[in-house]
């Protein structure tokens, strides 16, 4: 037996390892299983090129808990190590690697998020173990070796009688880490980090019920089978040509077992130059409530789970998607800000954006009807992408849709072509009318449709920002919500409208109105509209309302403070009601008429509530008595 001191340059690295990334102690298991996987894959490679004179067979990795002994075993059938190799790889290289890693990142670990996910290697075992043993037998014809270290820089190395090839790591779990001999805890960890690793991992056995025989003779039989926790060949490691639609759907369920809704479609990523990246992204059905999003894209490095926080790697608008990205080229043991500036990561991000845009474009071209059906579920991602990525904005112009309240879907180009003749105002601006809610804006929509206008239904939470952007990009284009002005003013034409009322009469009417109507809430606006147009109408100016919406959904114009709710009360001076109000004999009756009209206008905007509604109903009954 040899004993020796691990070459420690820092006073004592083990307390540091223990303290390091306190919340991430669990990653030790992933590190050890990664090593076991690497050792197995190395053997596979050596046997395949004829370098190792042994049979590869069907190696698996075993994870065993010894509850009484408070030990955790990780056993592989990989290349193993000779005593000399243990000396070299464990005592020298692995240790200096861990030491270097700690020195480099211990200060920045807190804010980095991603650092904890990779790099500590074999020595991360000391985060949870008070003593670690390695029993290993190389594929070469040499005796097995037994290494042991109790967390001090001292280790022992001696021969061992182990005869099967491979490595067994034994962790003597420390008193403060006994959670790691709990079956449930280990099982959860294995699923979290190793669910798709390339070598089968066995964690004990499980019972399966088999049916033997057929019909009446059928009997159920309980059998104990290996509990293999991983799928070594997940869908993304296969070629798209090998996979059917059903395989993609099954893989989605495998990734998100708690997700019952089917994905809308998927995008298979596959590139090997100038960087390596594979993966499958799914478009889920999204609700307007963005905070509901909890199943996220998972990032893997050679089938080892790294994180489901892909911020900085995937463009932000695509973080709403689900699926897997696997790349050995994403530098993981660096801080997040470094990651965002990394050239490779930038390329990866623009590759993904392009792939997504191409896929959407081909879905649109190949089956427009189906694409239209899916539009409501995918529009948020597309609109967000158009707002945040210039390249995506350009590409999206061919497939971004603008639905009307009558369920017709136009691209912007088609829409403009269609509405230009009727919806261009006197200044040559094409006005796109839209509603955000078919119910509450019903009367406004109907009025616009009666004029032959096309009314869009734009109801996603960020669409205000998109309209703003489109207005900036395209000349002579303006979006206006149907309830933002009187119908004649929504699209101003070159007509002089003549008022039935004289200037004097208009003055009198205005005075009567302003006396009866609370000034702080409504700005009274007299308009000479067609005589059958609605007599009283409440409108909300487009600009202020849109700014307010943009402020609520982030971005937009800052420094404006809170935008007030501003409403206009448009009174049609050519309506019979206006004349009637003007000619009413008694002041009391006039006031009643005005109040009733105002309430009706409020009612059609969904603004009449509570006490006001009670008064309105009472007054209405009085009037029809
Ligand atoms: N189960 C094993 N079988 C064979 N060799 C192993 C095993 N575990 C570790 N080793 C050897 O010890 C070395 C050091 O392992 P360690 O985990 O510290 O670093 P690494 O795997 O090289 O890199 P990483 O930091 O990515 O984990 C490995 O490179 C390998 O040569």
From TrEMBL:
<feature type="binding site">
    <location>
        <position position="31"/>
    </location>
    <ligand>
        <name>ATP</name>
    </ligand>
</feature>
<dbReference type="GO" id="GO:0051082">
    <property type="term" value="F:unfolded protein binding"/>
</dbReference>
<keyword id="KW-0175">Coiled coil</keyword>
<keyword id="KW-0547">Nucleotide-binding</keyword>
<feature type="binding site">
    <location>
        <position position="167"/>
    </location>
    <ligand>
        <name>ATP</name>
    </ligand>
</feature>
<feature type="binding site">
    <location>
        <begin position="96"/>
        <end position="97"/>
    </location>
    <ligand>
        <name>ATP</name>
    </ligand>
</feature>
<feature type="coiled-coil region">
    <location>
        <begin position="484"/>
        <end position="511"/>
    </location>
</feature>
<feature type="binding site">
    <location>
        <position position="81"/>
    </location>
    <ligand>
        <name>ATP</name>
    </ligand>
</feature>
<comment type="similarity">
    <text>Belongs to the heat shock protein 90 family.</text>
</comment>
<dbReference type="InterPro" id="IPR036890">
    <property type="entry name" value="HATPase_C_sf"/>
</dbReference>
<dbReference type="GO" id="GO:0140662">
    <property type="term" value="F:ATP-dependent protein folding chaperone"/>
</dbReference>
<feature type="binding site">
    <location>
        <position position="336"/>
    </location>
    <ligand>
        <name>ATP</name>
    </ligand>
</feature>
<keyword id="KW-0346">Stress response</keyword>
<dbReference type="Pfam" id="PF00183">
    <property type="entry name" value="HSP90"/>
</dbReference>
<dbReference type="InterPro" id="IPR037196">
    <property type="entry name" value="HSP90_C"/>
</dbReference>
<dbReference type="GO" id="GO:0016887">
    <property type="term" value="F:ATP hydrolysis activity"/>
</dbReference>
<dbReference type="InterPro" id="IPR019805">
    <property type="entry name" value="Heat_shock_protein_90_CS"/>
</dbReference>
<dbReference type="Pfam" id="PF13589">
    <property type="entry name" value="HATPase_c_3"/>
</dbReference>
<dbReference type="GO" id="GO:0005524">
    <property type="term" value="F:ATP binding"/>
</dbReference>
<keyword id="KW-0143">Chaperone</keyword>
<dbReference type="InterPro" id="IPR020568">
    <property type="entry name" value="Ribosomal_Su5_D2-typ_SF"/>
</dbReference>
<feature type="binding site">
    <location>
        <position position="76"/>
    </location>
    <ligand>
        <name>ATP</name>
    </ligand>
</feature>
<protein>
    <submittedName>
        <fullName>Heat shock protein 90</fullName>
    </submittedName>
</protein>
<feature type="binding site">
    <location>
        <position position="35"/>
    </location>
    <ligand>
        <name>ATP</name>
    </ligand>
</feature>
<dbReference type="InterPro" id="IPR001404">
    <property type="entry name" value="Hsp90_fam"/>
</dbReference>
<keyword id="KW-0067">ATP-binding</keyword>
<dbReference type="InterPro" id="IPR020575">
    <property type="entry name" value="Hsp90_N"/>
</dbReference>
């Amino acid at each position: 037996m040899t004993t020796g001191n691990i070459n420690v340059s820092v006073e004592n690295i083990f307390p540091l390892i223990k303290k390091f990334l306190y919340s991430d102690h669990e990653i030790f298991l992933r590190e050890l299983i990664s090593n076991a996987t690497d050792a197995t894959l190395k053997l596979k490679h050596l046997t395949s090129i004829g370098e190792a004179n042994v049979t590869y067979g069907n190696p698996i990795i075993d994870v065993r808990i010894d509850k009484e002994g408070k030990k955790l075993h990780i056993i592989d059938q990989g290349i193993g190590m000779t005593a000399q190799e243990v000396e070299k790889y464990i005592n020298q290289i692995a240790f200096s690697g861990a030491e270097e890693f700690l020195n480099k990142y211990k200060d920045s670990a807190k804010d980095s998020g991603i650092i904890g996910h990779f790099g500590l290697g074999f020595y991360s075992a000391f985060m949870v173990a008070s003593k670690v043993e390695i029993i290993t037998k190389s594929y070469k014809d040499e005796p097995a070796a037994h290494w042991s270290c109790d967390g001090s820089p001292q280790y022992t190395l001696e021969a061992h009688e182990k005869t099967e090839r491979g490595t067994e790591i034994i962790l003597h779990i420390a008193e403060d880490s006994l959670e790691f001999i709990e079956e449930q805890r280990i099982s959860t960890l294995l699923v979290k980090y190793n669910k798709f690793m390339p070598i089968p991992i066995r964690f004990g056995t499980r019972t399966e019920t088999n049916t033997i025989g057929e019909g009446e003779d059928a009997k159920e039989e309980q059998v104990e089978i290996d509990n293999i926790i991983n799928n070594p060949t997940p869908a993304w490691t296969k070629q798209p040509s090998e996979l059917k639609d059903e395989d993609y759907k099954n893989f989605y369920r495998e990734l998100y077992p708690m997700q019952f809704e089917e994905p809308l479609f998927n995008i298979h990523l596959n590139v090997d130059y100038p960087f390596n990246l594979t993966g499958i992204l799914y478009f889920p059905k999204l609700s307007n409530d963005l905070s509901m999003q909890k199943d996220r894209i998972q990032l893997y490095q050679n089938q080892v789970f790294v994180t489901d926080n892909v911020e900085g790697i995937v463009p932000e608008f695509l973080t709403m998607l689900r699926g897997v990205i696997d790349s050995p080229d994403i530098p993981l043991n660096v801080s997040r800000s470094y990651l965002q500036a990394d050239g490779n990561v930038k390329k990866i991000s623009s590759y993904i954006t392009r792939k997504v845009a191409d896929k959407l474009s081909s879905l649109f071209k190949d089956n427009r009807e189906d694409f239209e059906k899916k539009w409501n579920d995918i529009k948020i991602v597309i609109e967000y992408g158009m707002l945040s990525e210039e390249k995506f904005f350009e590409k999206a112009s061919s497939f971004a849709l603008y639905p009307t309240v009558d369920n017709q879907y136009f691209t912007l180009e088609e829409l403009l072509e269609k509405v230009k003749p009727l919806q261009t105002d006197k200044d040559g601006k094409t006005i796109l009318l839209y509603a955000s809610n078919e119910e509450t804006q019903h009367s406004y929509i109907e009025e616009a449709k009666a004029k032959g206008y096309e009314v869009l239904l734009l109801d996603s939470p960020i669409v205000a920002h998109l309209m703003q952007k489109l207005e900036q990009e395209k000349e002579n284009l303006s979006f206006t919500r149907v309830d933002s002005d009187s119908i004649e003013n929504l699209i101003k034409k070159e007509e002089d409208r003549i008022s039935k009322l004289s200037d004097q009469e208009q003055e009198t009417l205005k005075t009567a109105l302003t006396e009866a109507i609370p000034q702080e809430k409504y700005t009274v606006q007299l308009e000479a509209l067609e005589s059958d147009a609605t007599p009283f109408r409440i409108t909300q100016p487009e600009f202020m309302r849109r700014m307010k919406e943009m402020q609520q959904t982030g971005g937009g114009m800052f420094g404006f403070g809170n935008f007030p709710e501003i409403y206009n009360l448009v009174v049609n001076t050519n309506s019979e009601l206006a004349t009637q109000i003007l000619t009413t004999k008694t002041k009391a009756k006039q006031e009643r008429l005005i109040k009733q009209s105002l309430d009706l206008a409020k009612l059609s905007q969904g603004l009449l509530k509570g006490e006001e509604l009670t008064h309105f109903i009472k007054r209405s009954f009085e009037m029809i008595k």
